TrEMBL record:
Name this polypeptide is given: Phosphatidylglycerophosphatase A
Catalysed reactions, as listed in the record: a 1,2-diacyl-sn-glycero-3-phospho-(1'-sn-glycero-3'-phosphate) + H2O = a 1,2-diacyl-sn-glycero-3-phospho-(1'-sn-glycerol) + phosphate
The organism's taxonomic lineage, starting at the top: Bacteria, Pseudomonadati, Pseudomonadota, Gammaproteobacteria, Chromatiales
Cofactor dependence: Mg(2+)
Location in the cell: Cell inner membrane
Cell inner membrane among keywords: yes
E.C. number: 3.1.3.27
Family annotation (InterPro entries): PgpA, PgpA-like_sf, YutG/PgpA
Enzyme class: hydrolase
Length: 172
């Protein structure tokens, strides 16, 4: 793969297309969006989620764990190379947070007439908690560094969003 050196995105984000961990951390390039990279990262996670959603729950959960471990490595290494605590262009944490959010939505709900509403609800709930950062997410975001800090606040946002979807499932 050729190195992206002549784009403004590369200069401002430090993205190096020769490095696998950059592709992962930058969410396959979705984190290079000039505005709202976290939102674009979450949007980019939706097709991946839709590919994963038919899997039996243990396999889905196994992928989420695998993607979390990979994210800890990729986000930590990329952030260290960029010399920043949590660069906004690193969005793999949004992928994992969204996958966690959607853990509570069975595939059978997605195949119904209103399945897209569950994806939209998951997207909105996750983005709300990721942006708002209520306690303890804000504390983690401020105090934990490295790949763990990058990933953990979004993992917690995903858990809170998943709980929100569980409430919605009970109500509807």
């Amino acid at each position: 793969m050729p190195k992206v050196t002549d784009s403004n995105a590369s200069r401002s984000t430090g993205f190096d297309s020769r490095k696998l961990h950059h592709w992962i951390a930058f969410g396959f390039g979705s984190g290079l969006a000039p505005k709202a990279p976290g939102t674009f990262g979450t949007l980019a996670a939706i097709p991946v989620y839709l590919l994963m959603s038919p899997l039996a729950w243990p396999y889905y959960l196994g992928l989420v764990v695998l993607f979390t471990v990979i994210g800890l490595w990729a986000c930590d290494r990329t952030a260290r190379e960029l010399g920043a605590k949590d660069p906004s262009a690193i969005v793999w944490d949004e992928f994992v947070g969204f996958f966690i959010t959607m853990l509570v939505v069975p595939y059978s709900l997605l195949t119904g007439a209103h399945g897209w509403l569950w994806v939209l609800a998951g997207f909105l709930a996750f983005r709300l908690f990721d942006i708002w950062k209520p306690w303890p997410i804000r504390v983690i975001d401020e105090r934990v560094e490295g790949g763990l800090g990058i990933m953990l606040d979004d993992i917690l946002a995903g858990i809170m969003a998943a709980l929100t979807l569980l409430v919605l499932r009970l109500l509807f």
